[in-house]
Each structure stands twice: as C-alpha cells, then as structure tokens.
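Cross-posting from the modeling subforum.

Setting up a comparison between two proteins and wanted a second pair of eyes on the formatting. Protein 1 (sequence, then structure tokens):
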Amino acid sequence: MPDSPASAPAAPAFVSARGLGMVFRGGIEALRDVTLDVARGDFVALVGPSGCGKSTLLRLVAGLIAPTGGELAVDGLAPRQARRERHDMAFVFQQPALLPWRTVADNVGLPLELDGQGRAARRERIDELLDLVGLREFARTHPHQLSGGMRMRVSLARALVGRPGLLLLDEPFGALDEITRQRLNEELRRLWASQGFTALFVTHNVFEAAFLAQRVVVMSPRPGRIACELAVPFESERTPALRARPEFAAFCGAVSRELQEAHR
C-alpha cells in the first residue's frame, strides 16, 4: 500500500520574533523574551498598558532600532535589510505627519517621488489611492484645510501608495473622536481586504482591536512580554452592526480580563 502523501510544509511567518529583547541605554528593559509569528496577510492587534513596549516592538519590526537580544526577521531578512532592499513596509504614526506646504496629492505621492517614479505613473497611483480613501476631490487642498480624520486618511493613502506588504500602525486613531475613529476602523478593514497587506496595529482600545484584527496579542507591563493571544471569532466582513452584538461585547470582555490578569 503506498504511503500517504506528505502534507505541505507550513509557509514561514512573514514576521518572526524569537526571544526578542530590548534594553535601552540607561538600563530600561522595554521588551523581554517576545516570541511572535505573523503570517503574510494577517491583521494582528497589539494591546497592553502604557509603556509595555508595543510601540518599541513596532519600531523593531520597522528596522528603526535594533534589538539587544533574540532574533527578528521580516520575510526572512533582518528588518532594516527588508526595508532597504524590498521597500515592502510602511509605517502610520498617531499623528499624520503630513508636509504642510504640499497638497494632499503631493503628500500621498511623496514615497513614489522619492523612489524616482515618473510623474505620469505617480499621478495614476495617487488618483487610485485617493479614490480608495474617498478624498479625490481634495487632491489640490493642503493639510490645514482638512479635518483630523481626513488627514489620517491621507496618511493611510501615503502609506499604501507603494503597495507595501507590511503596514505598521502605531495608535493611528488615538487622537480622534469616537465616531471618526469607528469610521476609520471600517475604512482600514476595507483597505486591508482590498489591498491584501499584512498589518500590525498598536492600540489601547480593546473594542478597536476586536473590530479590526484577526488576532489580538495581549502584552504584559514593562518589560513587555506576550501574556496571551486570542483569535477573533468574527467573520471577515466586519460591519458597524457587529459592535452591537452580544458576542462582540463578550469577546471584548475576555480581552479586558486578560489585560487585567497580565497587569497583576
């Protein structure tokens, strides 16, 4: 009787951390023994108390700083090398950090301009992204003429204009009012579904994490460690009605309990 066919090996993680540690100058230990795998196309939210190292972990993945212990790879490469050679990641900060003297279109197109792409190619891609975030009619306006939510949509468009494989988001909606925040959560989910990027999203908001992510990673107080991971049990298509469902409240309660337990 012939042998059963071997199962296909699992694809390597797109982002892989093993025993990751980070001690800053002066002896402040931000992260200790962090092990995490993020598959290509995943949407993972990181939650935890202030100062637990969530933003530090994102900066390590982006290659903006180097770890002091453990191993970290993005698509099989050191993060800084992955960013330099493959131009395959983008970062969205809490503040949009738009250039005030440039129009919306010119802000969105800045990564393409720095990459040496011609004006015609840039224009086509800029128009596509402004359509995606619903800002085509504001292409010639300047950042000071926009609301906070609109500026954040410009920041998202700029991050996505280069078709990154990995999008790192550090509390991008934390300074916005709740209604705008919810609308941008819905916008981000739609963009993720249509663009297929991998997302690592830092937030303090349990409800935001539950609405956006496929998996919620709970971190302990400093030095930050992964206390637990929870798979989000909702369908891929998230609508505003999800927030009113009892099972959504129950899952958010479960995440909150894990946060409290990790804080003890």
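Protein 2 (same layout):
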Amino acid sequence: MKLYYTPNSPYARMCRITAELAGVNNDLELEWVTLRSPDNPVIALSPLGRVPLLVDGDVMLTEARHICAYLDEKGGKSPTVAVYGDWQALSSEAEALAFLDAVTVWSREVRRGQDVQSDFLLEVADEQVRRELAHIDKTLSVPAGDPPLTFETISLLTALGMMRFYELMPDWRETYPNVAAWSDAYDVIPIVASTAPRADALRPLVR
C-alpha cells in the first residue's frame, strides 16, 4: 500500500494516525508529494491531484474517511470509522469533519497574500468555527485515562491542530477551556504528537 500525502494535510494526518492504530504502518509506504505542480505524481493516478491518495493494487481511494475505513479493515482491529446504520455516530463524524473543512478553508485563506485575501471568507470562517467551538465546549467530555481515537475524535484533534498551527484564533484556549482540556489529553498521544503540522513542511500557497 502507498499513501501519497503532504505532512501538513490534516486529511492525510488522519490516515497516518489510523494506519498506526490499525497496526498497518509497516505495510504502508509514504510518498510526500508537491501539490499544485504539473509533476505531482498523483495527477497520473487521480486527475484532481489531491492528497491523501491511497493506492493498493487496483484500489485507489481519495477521501480520508474511505481511506481510514480501508485501513481499519486491513488491520482487523477495532475500527475507527463508524459503520453505516450507526446513524448517531455517523452524524457526529459528519459534524466533526465539517468543522475540519471550515478550519481548512480558513487556513488556506490566511496563507494567501494579504492583498488577495477575502475579508468575507475570513469573517464567515471565524463565525463558523466559533459557533462549533462554543457547541462542543458544552458537549465534549474530557477523557480520563487513554483517550478514545475514533474518526470523530481524529477529525476534531486535526482541526484543532490546524487552528493552533496557523494561529487562526489566538484566544481559543481561554474562550473554550473545555475544548482546550480535551485537546491537551489527545496531544500527548505519541502518534498524534508525531504527525502534528510542522513549519519545515510549509509550502507557499500562491493561488
């Protein structure tokens, strides 16, 4: 199996965490690719050229949830991804993933030059993320002992990691203390810490 990725992609990070949990890390080859470049090797496999992309023989998967479910199946351990039919869990997963999507849009906009940033998009992203943080600050339970890693919690922790890395909301810890405590419980897990976004993996976002 090969996973095409970039180190700071939150969606690829989810897959890397899941591979560790599933016990298939040794069977997974990682290839760091350069996006928005004509020599991106992903383009020959998937026209959009997006990561993450998992290739396993004739199987090619381009969505993080599908990749994580596939890795779950390959590992044969307790799955991270909820099964269809468990609609409450699926609903929670969808909300967490939508939160990550909103944070990702925000992070991409702030990486653009200030002269081309959209004030409207920045304002909408700030409002969306604050609404969700206010909601989960009331509903999240700070885990005691080993925190459970599921597709939902991995989506949340990667979103918070992006927020922190790009300094999108400097006051989030003080404003949402329950979320901060929840995040602290997860950030010390070795696979979570080792896959966190890093400055030396940043690439210019010019368009």
